[in-house]
Amino acid sequence: MTEPDWPRLDQRARLGSVPRPRFLIILTLLLALTACGLGDSDRSREQGSTAASEQNASLPKALAQAAAGRPHVATSPQELAKQVVAAEQAIAGASTPADVLQAAGHLQQVGYRTLSTRPQWDAAVRKALPAGLRRVVADNVASRREFRSMHPTSRRHLHKDLPDWRIVAAAPAKQLLEHYRAAEARFGVDWEYLASINFIETSFGRIRGTSVAGAKGPMQFIPTTWDIYGRGDIDSVRDSIFAAGRFLKAQGFARSPAAALFRYNNSSAYVRGVSLVAKLMQRRPRAFYGYYHWKVYYLTRLGSVLLPEGYVSKRRIPVRTYLAEHPESRPTDR
Fold it and tell me: Which residues pair with 296 in a beta bridge?
């Protein structure tokens, strides 16, 4: 869980008892390239870097900053509104290049994280937004605040250590969509709800580790619940998505999605948060691609710490110790 991201991404605490479910150097080639001066691969990288710079120069400032590295944290409502507009417009564009789309997702995430903890900015941000994005922004922030409400409000009650997780690459977005839609066809559970759960529980499978309640896999199932609804491997993306569809169908999703979600995690805030995200994707299917590119942040006493792909620890690590070695993961909020 996350705070101000999603609860599963930050804390991984489960309120209920049901599923929360090369490097090889070729010496002769290297010598040949050195003898020739600038090799073809070097030229290619140089050209690619130039092309990327030219592309970034044409982007809105906020998005160019995100594409060049880590998104800037807004210091005013007006700046935040510009960030959100740039991110949402890029995500909505079917022809947006993959690298820009990735930057837009991270920018969107940082923007919503920032606004969700600054309710005093709400009115000014809304005023600065185009009318067509006001509901989108409001619903995203509302969902984040629902999940944040599941965590302690006092910093001193938050973790001073980072988790014993591995952060890996998510399955390709196309593959995930195929699994969600196949499960929808079989079990009658809207794919957007399955995607929302997968997003909130483990950032689309990026988080590998067992929750404090013993939940496992991309959709976070308690093993005893998996024994009933699971088929195959609890760590399989496809198998876990299908198990979630099977579970939600059995809990009466067709009659009441909210009631079925409450059985998935018996928290009203969880139900509202998941539903808001799912309904956003129903209205704006490309919203999925923005969420897909969100990063893993972990809420601590020092703020939300970025856990990049490749993070791995078999034990909990003091936040200050990790940040001393990885300053690039510094908290984006205090």
Answer: 307
